[in-house]
């Protein structure tokens, strides 16, 4: 497969940001985090955008920011909610290979101890379990490759991604 970008999708706490940095070094690519792009373009934290403008407004902003990405040879870490935008995901698929970093719900609970304050774009009252079940089908739908990183270190996950891409 002749690809230039590697796009990481998955739940908050699956390791997208951490893994993207390691993977970028291992594959000689630059990395970018779409959540950071959103915060820079809006000059607000993600949860502040959701709190002030609402979840649907946040998703529109996220989709717009993602569709503007015109990069080659990057590892792109997306926000966990990127999969809600079919047009954003189509765009990402057109510029790279989509890697779903699967982590079990139990694993996510161990990794995320501050779900309420973490800056995750979520609906009021939405639990980690709600989000996990709501998003799982979308992650699977868009993934070219799925890596179960529940029991892998970030380094091991990168090795597995590289192996599967090659």
Which features characterize this protein?
166 residues; Rossmann fold; 51% helix; globular
Task: Walk me through the topology.
Layout: E1 5-9, H1 16-26, E2 30-33, H2 34-42, H3 46-53, H4 55-67, E3 74-77, H5 86-95, E4 96-102, H6 105-111, H7 128-142, E5 145-148, H8 154-165
Parallel strand pairs: 1-3, 1-4, 2-3, 4-5
Helix pairs in contact: 1-8, 2-4, 3-4, 4-5
Unreliable spans: none
| Shape type | globular
Q: Determine the structural class based on helices, strands and strand pairing.
A: alpha/beta
Question: Which second-level CATH architecture applies?
Answer: 3-Layer(aba) Sandwich
What is the domain tally? 1
Sheet of most strands: 5 strands, parallel
SSE order: EHEHHHEHEHHEH
In spatial order, strands of the major sheet run: 2-3-1-4-5
Q: Helix segment count?
A: 8
Describe this entry's structure for a reader.
The chain is α/β, with parallel strands linked by helices and 166 residues long. The chain has a single domain (5-161), classed as P-loop containing nucleotide triphosphate hydrolases (Rossmann fold, 3-Layer(aba) Sandwich), CATH 3.40.50. Helix content is 51%, strand content 14%. The chain has eight helices and five strands. The protein has helices at residues 16-26, 34-42, 46-53, 55-67, 86-95, 105-111, 128-142, 154-165, and strands at 5-9, 30-33, 74-77, 96-102, 145-148. The protein has a five-stranded parallel sheet with strand order 2-3-1-4-5, sandwiched between helices. The radius of gyration is 15 Å and the shape is globular. The N and C termini lie close together (8 Å). The model has no long low-confidence stretch (mean pLDDT 91).
